[in-house]
């Protein structure tokens, strides 16, 4: 605390990022990164961009990347916004689009950055509990509100909402903006991007951090109709007009174009997820049905905190969640096959011991 802090900084409760360990050789299944890394074509593009041109500012509009993303969806670059990780894209959406006189709605439990942005921008929020099966119940959002944000699949549960449910949410109030945070959509959920042309109250946010193995490059994007994108650009240009550097624009553009690499890796991760879910169930865990690159699971007998600590002592890092409304869960990212085997073997040893 300093007497120079503004009142808003004094009351902020900042997000606590998952551990990025300094110790080597840990099996890192705690922050939902890809175990496979980026497309070799992305690495080649980054290497090529890492030259004398770095003395020049990047393209402030990141046009090459926006065009690559738009082309995939039959949209124009004006319907795509890019930022420094989807966290930054979301931050701009909270500041520029989600602050209203009426409250913002989001599920409890969901991405824990949402309340942080609400604190930062003074946004009133109402948290809507999940149902007894940890699902988002769209009918609960049919109430006076300024906007809605929800992850699909939800995080950290991993449970996806079908597209028809997103459409129902959009139809509840055409004057209310719905932001769908699709950080994990490529692992088996249906994307709402196809709904954008017919819905001016929809913004879809995605990231390069998970299915494209580029968490370290910090690139995310939003897709929506032009007026929404222009709103985000107004915020961006009042904050940092060069959010993506030259390496990020080059690497992300090449990664987005390499559909084969992306498809192969996301399918591999989905297959490993099913194997992990079965293995965990055999060890006495209840595993929620996941459409993400992680599973959310709780053990009938053993406390999540103890299991997470015992795994860490054996070199495996997972994330522990405990909240009154949801109980005591582990969120386990899907690693390589060898990492998944190691996780199951260590858990089995812990539970036997
Ligand atoms: N949304 C959700 C639901 C997430 O879990 C994450 C990752 N922590 C993000 C957005 C942000 O990801 P990034 O900033 O790496 O794009």
TrEMBL record:
Pathway: Amino-acid biosynthesis; L-histidine biosynthesis; L-histidine from 5-phospho-alpha-D-ribose 1-diphosphate: step 7/9. PANTHER family: HISTIDINOL-PHOSPHATE AMINOTRANSFERASE (PTHR43643:SF3), HISTIDINOL-PHOSPHATE AMINOTRANSFERASE 2 (PTHR43643). It catalyses: L-histidinol phosphate + 2-oxoglutarate = 3-(imidazol-4-yl)-2-oxopropyl phosphate + L-glutamate. Pfam families: Aminotran_1_2. CDD domains: AAT_like (cd00609). Its EC number is 2.6.1.9. Residues 25-346 form the Aminotransferase class I/classII large domain. InterPro entries: Aminotrans_II_pyridoxalP_BS, Aminotransferase_I/II_large, HisP_aminotrans, HistidinolP_aminotransfase, PyrdxlP-dep_Trfase, PyrdxlP-dep_Trfase_major, PyrdxlP-dep_Trfase_small. The keyword Ligase does not apply. Belongs to the class-II pyridoxal-phosphate-dependent aminotransferase family. Histidinol-phosphate aminotransferase subfamily. Keywords: Amino-acid biosynthesis, Aminotransferase, Histidine biosynthesis, Pyridoxal phosphate, Transferase. It is an enzyme of class 2 (transferase). The modification N6-(pyridoxal phosphate)lysine is found at residue 210. GO terms for molecular function: histidinol-phosphate transaminase activity. Its cofactor is pyridoxal 5'-phosphate. It comes from the Bacteria. It comes from Kaistia geumhonensis. This is Histidinol-phosphate aminotransferase. Homodimer. The lineage of its organism: Bacteria, Pseudomonadati, Pseudomonadota, Alphaproteobacteria, Hyphomicrobiales. The gene is hisC.
